[in-house]
Amino acid sequence: xxxxxxxxxxxxxxxxxxxxxxxxxxxxxxxxxxxxxxxxxxxxxxxxxxxxxxxxxxxxxxxxxxxxxxxxxxxxxxxxxxxxxxxxxxxxxxxxxxxxxxxxxxxxxxxxxxxxxxxxxxxxxxxxxxxxxxxxxxxxxxxxxxxxxxxxxxxxxxxxxxxxxxxxxxxxxxxxxxxxxxxxxxxxxxxxxxxxxxxxxxxxxxxxxxxxxxxxxxxxxxxxxxxxxxxxxxxxxxxxxxxxxxxxxxxxxxxxxxxxxxxxxxxxxxxxxxxxxxxxxxxxxxxxxxxxxxxxxxxxxxxxxxxxxxxxxxxxxxxxxxxxxxxxxxxxxxxxxxxxxxxxxxxxxxxxxxxxxxxxxxxxxxxxxxxxxxxxxxxxxxxxxxxxxx
Amino acid sequence: xxxxxxxxxxxxxxxxxxxxxxxxxxxxxxxxxxxxxxxxxxxxxxxxxxxxxxxxxxxxxxxxxxxxxxxxxxxxxxxxxxxxxxxxxxxxxxxxxxxxxxxxxxxxxxxxxxxxxxxxxxxxxxxxxxxxxxxxxxxxxxxxxxxxxxxxxxxxxxxxxxxxxxxxxxxxxxxxxxxxxxxxxxxxxxxxxxxxxxxxxxxxxxxxxxxxxxxxxxxxxxxxxxxxxxxxxxxxxxxxxxxxxxxxxxxxxxxxxxxxxxxxxxxxxxxxxxxxxxxxxxxxxxxxxxxxxxx
Lengths: 390, 295
What we know:
The complex is a heterodimer of chains A (390) and B (295).
Chain A: E1 5-9, H1 12-23, E2 25-32, E3 35-41, E4 67-75, E5 78-81, E6 93-98, H2 100-113, H3 126-133, E7 135-140, E8 166-170, E9 174-179, H4 182-190, E10 195-197, H5 200-220, H6 227-235, H7 241-250, H8 256-259, E11 267-273, E12 302-309, H9 330-342, H10 344-350, H11 360-364, H12 371-389
Parallel strand pairs in A: 2-6, 6-7, 7-8
Antiparallel strand pairs in A: 1-9, 1-10, 2-3, 4-5, 4-12, 8-9, 11-12
Helix pairs in contact in A: 6-9, 6-12, 7-9, 9-10
Chain B: E1 19-30, E2 39-44, E3 56-61, E4 65-70, E5 81-86, H1 90-96, E6 103-110, E7 123-129, H2 133-145, E8 153-159, H3 171-176, E9 179-185, E10 200-202, H4 207-212, E11 219-224, H5 227-239, E12 248-251, E13 267-268, E14 271-272, H6 273-276, E15 279-281, H7 282-288
Parallel strand pairs in B: 7-8, 7-11, 8-9, 9-10, 11-12
Antiparallel strand pairs in B: 1-2, 1-6, 2-5, 3-4, 3-6, 12-15, 13-14
């Protein structure tokens, strides 16, 4: 549809970004202490242009940690709720320079938090959706795969069909702007004076550039998310316990993989006292006078119920009161994580693979068991099993 | 899988906001001593809430946090919301110390709940290990309200020691309504095992299966208890006693932080226990782990 594709002159983009920075909160990649991070910027000139991707995905703008879900206080020893207490977005947010893998991740998070993936729309998560609705996503298509990029394997890029408001592709003489949503259309109307309908040649150039990225990836990168083999092995439960035990032994349980993953969203909920409200334990909660002794419920002070980022690779994640402890071994937790990322069971539930191929877990993993390595090991198991059976 | 919750709409902002409920009554089920932790049954203000047996609520102690606790009272009555809590952690410990009049936070009901309808006309077997009985009590009540629609109703309740059996004050009432109650304790106390009524044994709860005279093809079994009991008990009933895998129903326990399918703490294979469960059929659980992808 031609009205969804616009051509933007090379120097006009910064004018648009400067304008957005004045009227909205503009968030874009900036170089900070040698790392690329998404930060609020005051003008287009501050934006970092030569980056592969940010160190962490921009999910903290939708799932900040800590995030207040509820506020309450005690009056005369009785609890009183303070409104619905949830933090709202301060103002409309425009995210520029998001890569396709992270757009795909955010799309998955949105489906999950709206309750759509699990078939429970009545449990839509208000705090997340308020932030998501207040955000505009201007994604930028990658022109060259990075060393650890694997989006091509996971339908996570280099360009997408949906999930963005605008998808920008750098062309030889300007930018191709693809509009993905109603919000994107509104934005195109606002900047109509700077946009021209995109010609067939611009669209063809984009297609060619995307094709080149894919070709370069297959020709030069040795990293893959081997989705077919890994999907078979996890969905059918064909990986022996020893496989997971071995992964568990290598894993150092830092949790880095989940913290940097654009589709990971597990969280903990804790009631935390504001400073000066009684004796506070290491978790922010109340603490008994003697270790193991009875604990009295607080009856004064101001409290927040907070959402805090959590991580299925950490040992305490599924710990239950009373001693029951599912997934006690790290190997079992590796199984849970990679099953969630790669199995057909979860593809069916969430509508997409749990990995968008951003490659960050391969970068941060101290044990060298990012998703590329693990899926390669799964392929070896599959081939080995076939070989043995023949 | 059973019907969806009949709870209040929990949209957007209110998803994590509890309602305040007053503790109306406290009954001590198990006294704390050197070997046992205190267990109490709390009656909470119902506040217009209705539920399906097997559903749970997120119960919060203000200033401490929330824990998921199954609802033990039957739906549809004007009776209070009953929860039975064991002093197992910080929040549950505080719940066991509450006095009538205290205010707690309640969110829910959460989860799918049991469907009694699909078991009409059959024998009902309840297998409850320790704190598993509170999860089944609401369903038992619901069955008793329609007693003539079911065949035998048998309750097997086991615990580590006799002092940890819960709802002992109810057994006589249940028996009057035609329920057979059989008890087990992993070890006796020198006195309990010599009493005659209700029938009892020292040993694992599975030892009661033989004694209960289960007719597998007519029986629907509901199991709740420690993971090992759910696993071995279910396998025994299906393999040795011929109970259909689809007639074997369990309710799983996980420490949900949100109760609404978001926090990820309760994931089992690809199911979120808090919204897809906590009630599962055995055949469903075993089918989850191995499926054929379309490629």
